[in-house]
Design brief:
Layout lengths: L1 E4 L17 E3 L14 E7 L13 H10 L4 E3 L5 E3 L2 E6 L5 E6 L4 E5 L9 E5 L2 H12 L17 H5 L10 E5 L2 E5 L7 H6 L8 H6 L17 E7 L8 E6 L14 E7 L2 H9 L5 E4 L9 E15 L9 H9 L3 H5 L6 E3 L9 E2 L2 E2 H4 L10 H15 L7 E6 L9 H11 L3 E6 L1 H10 L4 E6 L6 H10 L11 H7 L4 H16 L4 E14 L2 E2 L1 E4 L4 E3 L4 E2 L2
Parallel strand pairs: 3-14, 20-21, 20-22
Antiparallel strand pairs: 1-6, 2-25, 4-5, 6-7, 7-11, 8-9, 10-11, 12-13, 13-14, 15-23, 16-22, 16-23, 17-23, 18-19, 24-27, 25-26
Helix pairs in contact: 7-10, 13-14, 13-15, 14-15
Length: about 550
């Protein structure tokens, strides 16, 4: 039996390390300014959280609150290493299919029971192994319709449960007693501890869940915390202003060995990123996350991490690009080395699908599996594909085609190099059309496009979550049948096979020419110069404030 304890690196033959938190907002802290603790952080949520249920929520606002409100068995550090969080230790069977966790006895739920009183009056009680058993079985339950269920289908019985063939009670998860949890897998899974470090594996107390009568996570009376902060107030009026979500430190879950640094988190709920940006410029909030690269590092503490892959997708009904040879022609005519020379630090030319923010064993996956292996640049081949495609499409030229671009995500001027190169090398006249985010997805839904520059991110901080979008996202047409990518990757039992599994999935998807990667793009944490250690969680795009320090 192999064993691991707190703050011990995971054995590489068992587990893929996490890629979270990939972005750390850091300024040049000065110890003379104090320890930066007990600050009340003011920040913004873009849109009202849809749900604070960790097994269900998948919007950015919800993810940020959940990240700061819950904690799980495992956690990841800023370098992508896994260690114990609420598990005091764990062991793994020799065949890699059975995990036994011993829980810490000092992790507590908190229920705020007196919201009208300015003093904290609530109830604390310990988190038990049964809370994790209930959460993981609930996650797999098809009635739950969790967007994360397939990510956890490696749990014994998971796939059959998700398909409705078995009861959730038959899942290989068992609370032996209050502090001992056993999880049995169908097969060894290199990423399993990473999955347990992600928010969907947060605990859920069955008695409290039942007491909410279907409203779990939907208001401030229907949720409780076992993490760094608890929810004090959540007010939202869709027709009004001054919408807020207010959190306080859960002091029972903070200790000198595992501190929670800020005392409070105060979020305004804004309608758009531009509204949050205005608040930040006016000094009303301490930080925010953004895709914009327009902020000065001389004035602000800024960290960018390439969490997104931008690639071309095609309308399957388009008269030109439903033809594979036409798509091949575009792909083979892209000189990414030359393209890279036209880009600033916000973007990097992408050959592959999984962005650099995904880490394995403390290193970027893109360092471990260089994406240049997918380079298809070949102008003569591109010309041949173009001529074949035009004959098959019964057309002499390609005209009236535009790439629609979400202007809120990307500066389309970076596409002009490609537009000109396609015109010069293939005689294809492809324009560029900037649209709002709302119009971008409306036009995808309505099929009102020929080509779109699609922003690809996972929903969790794993490469599996990125690849799985090709099975679940309706606009990514390179999907395998019956979740084959997910199944193959989850069955990788060590890091070398995991890297090979990711690369094989990328290669297969790219061979379909339904998604042509162009750029890896930064997501930024922007904060005042007096702030340090605000983490951005790729995939969920949540901000983690547990260790945040303010020296102002």
């Amino acid at each position: 039996m192999r064993q691991n304890g707190d703050n011990v690196k995971v054995l590489p033959l068992i587990i893929c390390a996490a890629m979270l938190p990939a972005a750390v907002c850091t300024s040049c802290g000065d110890n003379d300014r104090g320890d930066g603790a007990n600050h009340m952080y003011d920040a913004s949520l873009i849109g009202n959280p849809q749900s604070l249920d960790p097994q269900y929520a998948d919007d950015q606002s919800s993810n940020t609150v959940i990240q700061n409100m819950f904690s799980g068995l495992m956690r990841s550090d800023a370098y992508g290493n896994i260690s114990c969080c609420n598990a005091a230790s764990y062991s793994v069977s020799d065949d890699g299919t059975k995990y036994t966790f011993q829980l810490r006895r000092d992790n507590y739920w908190f229920i705020d029971k007196n919201r009208d009183d300015i003093m904290d009056k609530g109830e604390y009680f310990p988190v038990t192994a049964g809370d994790y058993e209930f959460a993981l079985k609930r996650l797999l339950d098809p009635r739950m319709q969790s967007p994360y269920a397939w990510d956890y289908s490696c749990i014994k019985g998971g796939e059959s449960i998700i398909k409705g063939e078995l009861s959730p009670d038959s899942a290989g998860v068992r609370a032996v007693d209050d502090t001992t949890l056993e999880i049995e897998l169908e097969y060894p899974c290199a990423e399993f501890l990473e999955l347990l470090a992600a928010s969907p594996a947060s605990p859920c107390n069955e008695e409290f869940f039942t007491s909410t009568k279907g409203r779990y996570g939907l208001d401030d009376n229907s949720i409780m915390s076992n993490g760094p902060f608890y929810l004090r107030q959540w007010f939202y009026d869709p027709y009004g202003h001054h919408n807020i979500l207010y959190m306080r430190r859960n002091d029972m879950n903070s200790s000198p060995e595992d501190p929670v640094i800020p005392a409070y988190l105060s979020f305004t709920i804004e309608r758009s990123e531009s509204d949050a940006a205005e608040l930040f410029k006016d000094g009303d909030i301490d930080c925010f996350s953004t895709l914009s690269d327009s902020y000065s590092s001389k004035k602000y503490a800024i960290t960018g991490t390439k969490t997104m892959t931008l690639g071309l997708i095609f309308n399957p009904e388009d008269k030109y690009f439903k033809n594979e040879n036409m798509r091949r022609a575009l792909a083979c005519s892209i000189d990414r080395e030359a393209l890279d020379e036209t880009l600033d630090s916000d973007l990097k030319a992408a050959y592959g699908i999984i962005p650099p923010a995904v880490n394995i064993a403390g290193r970027s996956y893109r360092e471990l599996s260089a994406d240049v292996q997918f380079d298809s640049y070949d102008l003569s081949a591109a010309a041949e594909y173009c001529e074949k495609g035009k004959k098959e499409a019964k057309t002499a030229s390609v005209e009236g085609v535009k790439i629609i671009v979400c202007a809120d995500t990307f500066d389309s001027r970076c596409l002009h190099f490609l537009s000109q190169s396609w015109q010069d090398s293939l005689g294809m006249y492809i324009g560029i059309e900037d649209v709002s985010r709302e119009d971008f997805f409306r036009r995808l839904e309505e099929g009102d496009y020929s080509i779109a520059l699609y922003p690809l991110e996972g929903k969790m901080p794993t490469g599996l979550s990125v690849i799985r979008q090709f099975e679940s996202d309706q606009w990514l047409r390179g999907s395998a049948k019956d979740g084959q990518y997910t199944s193959d990757i989850l069955r990788c039992d060590d890091i070398p096979s995991l890297i090979e599994g990711y690369a094989a999935a990328e290669k297969e998807i790219l061979s379909r020419y339904s998604f042509i990667p162009l750029f890896y793009k930064n997501n930024y944490v922007v904060a005042g110069k007096d702030n340090e250690d605000i983490f951005l969680i790729p995939g969920s795009d949540a901000l983690d404030f547990r260790l945040a320090k303010n020296y102002g």
